[in-house]
Amino acid sequence: MADAIIPLITLIALEVVLGIDNIIFISILADKLPEQQRNKLRLWGIGLAMVMRLILLAIISWILKLDKTLFILFGMPFTGKELILIAGGIFLLYKSTKEIYHKTEQENPNAPTQIKSGSFGKFLSEIIILDVVFSIDSIITAVGMVNELWIMYTAVIVTVGIMLVASKPIASFISRHPSFKVLALCFLMLIGFTLIAEGFEIKIPKGYIYFAMGFSFLVDLIQMKTIGRNSSSQDAPKQ
């Protein structure tokens, strides 16, 4: 039992890191819905991510077959996992680029947000697509780290619990600070590019990716605090 604790903690930490991308994507979509539907979308999105992972763990033998070569194109072998990663990366790039354009070029900050009927179902379907991509990548990574299925199941359930607790504060923070929303969308673009690169067997260490994301977040946070301090000093009454 003691030998399983370290792999379990390691896998939970890895799942949480991979889950951050999912939380950011869900939070940005939820922010476009009416207030009463945002929490519902977050709960459904994260809940479906757990269900997806548990189902994939139950058919683990099929998941492992995704690492087998399906065909060779221009001398490069392609597996089922790689095709899913490429498709997911292209989808993530498209969505994040579209949202950035909307935020920076089209959106009028003084105009009320227009919510189309059926937006909840549309956003939920987009979350499901990303859930499939992230779940397959997560499960194959987990299989490479541990052999016991109970460790994988436990890691998934614990991770989803952490995501449920963290999703609302993260979503509220992104909603309150527009600059961080654009930064989060840039993160998703970077993740999409990484998925495509991995699909073409170009390995980019994830540590580099998350370090760059963390550093950018820190710089934006410092800038926000500096601007806020300067605004407070200018608004203060002169003696």
UniProtKB/TrEMBL annotation:
Record's subcellular location: Membrane
Top-level taxonomic group: Bacteria
Chief location of this protein within or outside the cell: membrane
InterPro entries named among the record's database cross-references: Integral_membrane_TerC
Similarity field: Belongs to the TerC family.
Protein name: TerC family protein
Ranges annotated as spanning the membrane: 6-29, 41-64, 70-94, 123-143, 149-166, 178-196, 208-224
Keywords annotated in UniProt: Membrane, Transmembrane, Transmembrane helix
Organism field: Mycovorax composti
Membrane topology: Multi-pass membrane protein
